[in-house]
Amino acid sequence: MSRLAEKVVVVAGGATGIGAATARLIADEGAQVLLGDINEEKGLETAQAIVKAGGRAAFQAFDIADEASVTGLMDSAIEHFGRIDALFSNAADLRPEIILNDSDIVAIDVGLWHHTLAVDLTGFFYTSRHAIPHLLRAGGGSIVVTSSAAAFVADGERPAYATAKAGLGAMVRHIATRWGKDGIRCNAVAPGPVASEVFKAGADPVTLAKLTRPLLLDRLGEPEDIATSVLFLLSDEASWLTGQVIGVNGGMVVR
Fold first, then answer.
1. From 62, 88, 161, 179, the catalytic residue
2. Digit-coded pLDDT (tens) for 8-45
3. If you average pLDDT over every residue of the chain, what do you get?
4. Is position 161 annotated as part of the catalytic site?
5. CB burial class (10 A; 0-12, 13-18, 19+) of residue 205?
6. What is the 3 state secondary structure string of the chain?
7. Which fold is adopted by the domain 8-195+222-248?
8. What is the pLDDT of residues 39-88, one digit of tens each?
9. pTM, full prediction
10. Least crowded by CB within 10 Å, which of 58, 72, 164, 183?
């Protein structure tokens, strides 16, 4: 039996990588997917591929750092599918000019700091804030957010990214505590290094070796490795699992 049959799932950040892999997988498992992303071209392409494969999906362009845009994403889900049963928040700004200049708290540009937190933390506040009333009307549901192994490891770089991802853990615990008795579960996945499309296009052997060295397994993750965990957390198979940040990281962080 399909694990998400007839469920309506909003995937906030689903054009490429982990988001696209998850959108495809949950559609295969019966979900009706409202896919949102700032990348309209790739977002439409992913949604159309799902429909072509026999699934149900629609696309809505949105900016996770803009609250009105997030509201529009939820409205689009209601317009297309009538309700919202689950949310997967996955958006992040990983452009080289952002992530490579996330240096240290003395050198980082203050504007870059605020931008990273706006996208990687406040944006997740917006998506949860505007999905929860719909989940309550549906009688409960599941929220999954994408954190990162960066929230748990010591690093002399990427303070803005790591701070945002660490903050998501507190947000997850708050949501799980505040609305658990109302049937809403909230969890996070915390990926380690994942071989995204962007990474594959520009990877070199030295970088690959550097990223693989801390892992207990002998390869980088693939978007599909994260998608399977998200599917589990969205499904009723995880009905007694809430308030957790689950490392899906090849053994990069062992707790």
1. 161
2. 999 999 999 999 999 999 999 999 999 999 999 999 99
3. 95
4. yes
5. exposed
6. CCCCCCCEEEEECCCCHHHHHHHHHHHHCCCEEEEEECCHHHHHHHHHHHHHCCCEEEEEECCCCCHHHHHHHHHHHHHHHCCCCEEEECCCCCCHHHHCCCCCCCCCCHHHHHHHHHHHHHHHHHHHHHHHHHHHHCCCEEEEEECCHHHCCCCCCCHHHHHHHHHHHHHHHHHHHHHHHHCEEEEEEEECCECCHHHHHHCCHHHHHHHHCCCCCCCCECHHHHHHHHHHHHCHHHCCCCCCEEEECCCCCCC
7. Rossmann fold (3.40.50)
8. 999 999 999 999 999 999 999 999 999 999 999 999 999 999 999 999 99
9. 0.95
10. 183
Contact 242, 186 (CB under 8 A): yes
Greatest Cα pair distance, the chain, in angstroms, is 53
Residue 196: count other Cβ atoms within 10 Å of its Cβ.
18
Domain-wise residue ranges, the chain: 8-195+222-248
CA 156 to chain centre: 25
Strand partners, 2: none
